[in-house]
Structure formats: structure tokens, C-alpha cells
Design brief:
With 683 residues, the protein is of the alpha+beta class. The chain has 29 helices and 12 strands. Bound molecules: zinc ion. The site of zinc ion has 7 residues, from strand 1, helix 23 and helix 25.
Length: 683
């Protein structure tokens, strides 16, 4: 199952962020401590008009080593995530003891059992890969291409996306229903460029990948010589998949990926593939009314390639992905091998996170709304809810006021934009109704728990086919430090995890709150009107509600942003991908401007909060310091290829350079890099 196309604030990492060896300190609230907190990160020798990111974060970056068990560490997100993780860890330890004793409510016991089995290293070693035997037998039964539908369906419904993948998503043109979707998948490297480009980093990654696949096959019981030959053949096969795969920027375009057809017509996409057999193997018990094939050429081509592959290579390919898919549930030797490639080689991470951290994360990913429920009970008072709502209202008002100033906008389209804005749903803190886990029965070991959870989770998704979506559903755990805009529901969501310092605190200076969570609110609202979000109306229908000449002008403005970010260098010889990051950059520019103006109106006359800095300066520092970050070069290189968000430095410098008020606040001379003669204005 592939993830939904949400617009998030920061990358949704599979494992989330992790604690550092240094003791993280949560952002303070008392005013003198706030002053120390803000000033201690700054490098005042830097010129804010040349490199505001260095000015705001330079001292912190110089004094902060990258924690060994993380690929990246951010002063706000990671410290907050670490704090949350500690709290959740304590909860899970208690629940594990209670689960053993058979006390506590069923959800508490479920959480304790999942966490406890993950912590039981001896049991994990004793079980080994035995529970995968049934999977391996299914793979070994593959003899010829006629067996392909049954094999792929069985694997894909176990969250093992081989050759292609399926999911159930809201129908982009009819958001009253949810539809079966076929997606591009099946490659072990994050995107096609890794297989195809000449960058020496990619060449090195390819060599390391082949060695890793070989090692994992050996760990699964394949003889060394066979594993070596198979690993090379698997690489050749995945390279063929990469050649027909779409680039990430195209996969993000909702119009390009919306290719609906009837289930019968699916047979014309790949006529030799028995789609009925595939459907049966996935566990889908209805004939779907329609299917959206995100990348038709890819699905057809990938099936052809797989059909023509010799049985031995196809078996090895699926076997490798089965090991990969389960690696974090298996023995230490297998987990370490997986980490040596995906952690060390790909992400530049020095050490594997401690077991307890891995267990907190796996338990949270399986049971987000059980963990969220207890997290909210322990941590979220709800006091911030009305304040956050007030902030959303102020920023929405600002967005509307700003529409009149936009040269490229016409009155009719502006009216429809206001209409869409008025229909945005706000989700703050946590769901009104928690997910029901009563049908989830876990197994006896960590691996079996994972398999049991996947089987439960897939049923939950399959039950959505051709059904109306649950508008109360959340797509992020309440404990997560992140936020999102969901175009098909026209909703913004702010989990409890992000509604705390340094993004937000009831007794922190208003300039910091607006530079922090206010900018995040503006960012998410603007997503509703970025290059993708603008293609959906207020009800979440993908439709063209714009006057045609206004579309042309919008695209010109967006092109200005794309060109700007394309010009930002990263590492040696690489640069930001302005097309991939366009939506996020538009959201940053709009969010920073609107939150500033909303703050000026509501709080602009407040007395100076921190000595030596005006409140206006504090607003921009509050924003910039939310992004202070250190990360490994390997991770930076990977994010440039896959992350729709720009690197932290350019999120800060790019955004402030396009908000004219910034140059006034810091008295930047005309022509300084962050006070350019021309600016891009989208929102
Ligand atoms: Zn975003």
C-alpha cells in the first residue's frame, strides 16, 4: 500500500526522527529563557541580508554534532520528537508490564504486547525467519508467467509492493467515494535516478545495493553463489523498471496520475495478466466499480518485464523484497545488514537506533490511534485549541485580504478562492473518534505481530473500496510533530505533537508563536492553492474553477518560484529541484507572508519582548529557527531526489527573500541577496 498524496509540513519519514546522545532540552517558555534560547542559536557575525539561515542558526549548527543514530537533527522537530518519544516510551514500558500481568484495558494491553514482543530480543532470535516459511513457499510455487497475478496479489496485500502496488484512495473527481488505485512501485532504491544517473554517488549506491541484496538473500537461506548471481539479475530487472518509471515530480501531479477506468478496461492495459486472479489473491472481495491507474505505461510495462523474467530471478526478486519488507522485525544480524545499506550507505547514519527507540516507532506505526489516545491523555490539555483556531481565522482573513493585492488574480476567480477557503475543515490536536482496534488480534512474536497487524490493516483499507470516506479520519498520529493539508477533503490538520514550544506556547511572545505555528498554519492553508492544491475546489473535487487567463498568470508566477529554487546549490554539483519542491515552496512563501501580516494586525503594537531584537525581527527569527538543522551529506543528497520540501537553508533564505517586509525589518540594502530587485509573488 502506498502512502496518500498529502501535503505535509516536513517529510514523513518511515521511522520518524530519533534522540541524540546530547540531552535534548525542550524549548523554554519563561521570557528570559526564551531570550537565551533565541540568541544562543544565532551567528551575529553573519549578514542577515546575505544568509539569514546562518544568522539565525549558525551558532547552533556549529555547536551541534549530528547524533550517531540519526541522518538529520533539527533544533525544533527533532527535539520535540525526542521529548514525545521519551514520554511514549515510558507509557509503553508500563503497558508492557501490565500486558504481561493481564491488567489494563484491551488497547493498553495491545500496545504493551506489541512493544513488549519487540523488546524481547531472545524471542526474536529464537523465532528467526520461521514465520516467513509460508511466504517463501508461495514464492517457490511460482513457475511461469500465468502464476504472476496470484503471486503479486498475495505479496502486495501483505504491504510488499513488488512490480507495482495498489492502494485505496479518495476519488479525485468524486471525493464522495474511494477507489482502488494502482501505483508505481517495486524498486528497492528510492527513485529511478538512483538506477540511471551517472552521479558517482548513485554509482556507489548501486554497487552497495547489489552487495546488500546478495547478503540478505544469504541470510534468508539462499546459497552464496546463487545469491550473488541473483542479486545482479535483480539489479538488472529493477533497472528496467526504473527506465519506464516516472520521476517524483510527475507522480506528484494529480492530473497526470488520474487515469480512471472500469475494472473490465484494466484488462486492456495488460491483456495477458489475469486481473480476476490478481483481485482474488489480494483479498478484494468485490468487483471494483472503477480503478485509477496512476501510471498506466508503468503498470503495463512492469507486468511485461516480470512476465518475461525467468522464474528463478523472479522468485529471488520477490524473496529479497520479502526480506526487506520484514527486516526490522527479524534477527539482529538481518536488522544490522538492512541498516548497513539503508541507514549507513544511503543516509549517512553512523549507528542503528537503540532497540527501545525502534520498538516505540514500530508500535506507533502499527497502533497510531492507541498511542495517540494515551499520549493526548498525558500531554495535551486542549488549552491550545481555541488559540490555534483564532490564529487560523486571522491568517485566513489575511489570505482573503491579500487576494485583492495580487496583480495576476481576477475578481471572479478570487471570489471562488474565498469560497474554497471558507470550506476548509480544521483538525486540531486529535481525532474526535479514535480508531477501533478490537478486531486486531496480535500474534506471539514480534514478527507475527507485524504480520497480524498488516493483515488487519489491509482489511481496513480494502473495506473502503467504493465506499464514502470517513471525514473524521486522521492521516497522522496525534503524537507526531508535523502537519498536513489534504486536498480531497479540503482540510488542514495539526496534531497535538506540534502544538508545543518552540512552535507554540500560550505564554511565549506572540511574534514567536506566529513565526512558529502561525507560519505553519499559513503554509498548510496555502497548500490548498499551490500548483497541485489549486486544482481542487472547496469540496475536494479535482476541477477547473479558474478563469483560463488567470491560470496562465498563475503558472507564470509559479515558474518564477521554480526557477528561483532551481538556482539554489546543494553539496558539490547538485542543486534544489525547483519542480519537485514547487508546491512546498509556494506554501512557504504564502505562509510566511500571511502569518506576518496577521501578527502585525493583531499584535504589532506589543512592547518589545526580547532585548536587542524588535518583535518584527523576532517573528522572522522564530520562523527561521524552526528549521535549524544538521544532516549528513548522504542524506542531503537523497532528499534532493525524493523530498518535495527544499533543504532547510533554502526554505529559510528562499522564503524571506520573497517577502518584502523582511528586507525592511532587517534594513537590507537594495540588491543584497535577500533583498532582490524582483520578487516572485504567487500568494
Ligand atoms: Zn507542506
Amino acid at each position: 500500500m502506498t502512502a496518500r498524496a498529502l501535503s505535509t509540513l516536513v517529510l514523513l519519514a518511515g521511522c520518524g526522527a530519533t534522540p541524540p546522545p546530547l540531552e535534548p532540552v525542550a524549548a523554554p517558555t519563561a521570557s528570559e529563557d526564551v531570550a537565551v534560547y533565541v540568541k544562543s542559536a544565532m551567528d551575529t557575525t553573519a549578514d542577515p541580508c546575505v544568509d539569514f539561515y546562518q544568522y539565525a542558526c549558525g551558532a547552533w549548527i556549529a555547536n551541534t554534532p549530528l547524533p550517531a543514530d540519526k541522518p538529520a537533527f533539527a533544533r525544533s522537530f527533532s527535539v520535540m520528537a525526542d521529548e514525545n518519544e521519551k514520554l511514549v516510551h515510558d507509557m509503553m514500558e508500563k503497558s508492557a508490564a501490565d500486558a504481561k500481568a493481564g491488567t489494563g484495558d484491551p488497547d493498553w494491553q495491545r500496545m504493551g504486547h506489541a512493544y513488549g514482543a519487540c523488546m524481547d530480543e531472545a524471542a526474536i532470535e529464537a523465532v528467526g525467519i520461521k514465520p516467513l516459511d509460508a511466504r517463501f513457499a508461495t514464492i517457490a510455487a511460482y513457475k511461469k508467467s500465468a502464476d504472476l497475478p496470484a503471486l503479486l496479489g498475495a505479496m502486495q496485500s501483505d504491504f510488499n509492493p513488488v512490480v507495482f502496488d495498489f492502494g485505496v484512495e479518495v476519488d479525485l473527481k468524486n471525493p464522495e467515494t474511494q477507489v482502488l488505485t494502482l501505483n508505481q512501485a517495486g524498486m528497492g532504491l528510492p527513485q529511478r535516478g538512483y538506477y540511471l544517473d551517472e552521479d558517482p554517488r548513485s554509482v556507489g549506491i548501486r554497487e552497495a545495493y547489489v552487495a546488500h541484496v546478495e547478503a540478505m538473500l544469504v541470510l534468508s537461506g539462499v546459497a552464496q553463489a546463487d545469491a550473488a548471481a541473483s542479486a545482479k539479475a535483480i539489479m538488472a530487472f529493477e533497472t528496467e523498471l526504473a527506465k519506464i518509471a516516472w520521476a517524483p515530480a510527475d507522480l506528484h501531479d494529480p492530473q497526470k496520475v488520474y487515469n480512471p477506468m472500469s475494472f473490465a478496461d484494466l484488462k486492456t492495459v495488460a491483456p495477458k495478466f489475469d486481473w480476476d486472479a490478481w483481485l482474488k489473491a489480494t483479498g478484494i472481495t468485490v468487483t471494483p466499480k472503477s480503478v485509477v491507474v496512476a501510471v498506466p505505461d508503468y503498470v503495463k510495462g512492469a507486468i511485461d518485464l516480470a512476465s518475461n523474467l525467468d522464474a528463478k530471478t523472479l522468485q529471488a526478486y520477490v524473496r529479497w523484497h520479502t526480506m526487506h519488507n520484514n527486516a526490522n522485525l527479524l534477527t539482529n544480524a538481518i536488522g544490522e545488514q538492512e541498516f548497513s545499506f539503508y541507514g549507513k550507505a544511503m543516509s549517512g547514519q553512523a549507528a542503528r537506533p537503540d532497540r527501545w527507540k525502534r520498538c516505540v516507532r514500530s508500535t506507533t506505526s502499527w497502533l497510531p490511534e492507541i498511542v495517540g489516545k494515551y499520549y493526548v491523555e498525558a500531554k495535551f490539555s486542549g488549552d491550545s485549541k481555541p488559540i490555534a483556531l483564532g490564529m487560523i481565522k486571522a491568517i485566513e482573513d489575511e489570505f482573503v485580504a491579500n487576494l485583492k493585492e495580487l496583480e495576476w488574480m481576477d475578481a471572479a476567480t478570487a471570489t471562488r478562492a474565498v469560497e474554497k477557503m471558507s470550506l476548509i475543515t480544521n483538525k486540531i490536536g486529535y481525532p474526535d473518534k479514535w480508531r477501533d482496534y478490537s478486531a486486531l488480534t496480535l500474534g506471539t512474536s514480534h514478527l507475527e505481530n507485524g504480520m497480524a497487524w498488516r493483515s488487519w490493516e489491509i482489511k481496513r483499507h480494502l473495506a473502503k473500496i467504493d465506499q464514502a470516506p470517513d471525514r473524521g479520519e486522521w492521516f497522522m498520529p496525534a503524537s507526531m510533530v508535523n502537519a498536513y493539508y489534504n486536498p480531497t477533503m479540503n482540510e488542514i490538520a495539526f496534531p497535538a505533537g506540534i502544538l508545543q514550544p518552540p512552535f507554540f506556547g500560550a505564554d511565549r511572545p506572540s511574534a514567536l508563536n506566529f513565526g512558529g505555528i502561525g507560519m505553519v498554519v499559513g503554509h498548510e492553508i496555502t497548500h490548498g492553492f499551490d500548483d497541485d492544491g489549486r486544482k481542487f475546489d472547496g469540496k475536494g473535487v479535482m476541477t477547473d474553477w479558474w478563469a483560463p487567463e488567470v491560470v496562465g498568470k498563475f503558472e507564470e508566477s509559479a515558474q518564477c518560484v521554480e526557477d528561483l529554487y532551481n538556482g539554489y546549490p546543494m553539496l558539490d554539483g547538485l542543486h534544489v529541484d525547483g519542480e519537485l519542491t514547487l508546491g512546498e515552496n509556494i506554501a512557504d512563501l504564502g505562509g510566511l507572508k500571511q502569518a506576518y501580516r496577521a501578527w502585525k494586525k493583531a499584535h504589532g503594537s506589543e512592547p518589545q519582548a526580547i532585548e536587542g531584537l524588535t518583535n518584527d525581527q523576532l517573528y522572522f527569527l522564530g520562523f527561521a529557527q524552526g528549521w535549524c538543522q544538521v544532516q549528513s551529506p548522504e542524506y542531503s543528497a537523497m532528499l534532493l531526489q525524493v523530498d518535495p520540501h527544499s533543504p532547510a537553508k533554502w526554505r529559510v533564505n528562499g522564503a524571506v527573500s520573497q517577502v518584502a517586509e523582511f528586507a525592511e525589518v532587517f534594513s537590507c540594502d537594495a540588491g543584497k541577496p535577500l533583498n532582490p530587485p524582483e520578487r516572485c509573488e504567487v500568494w
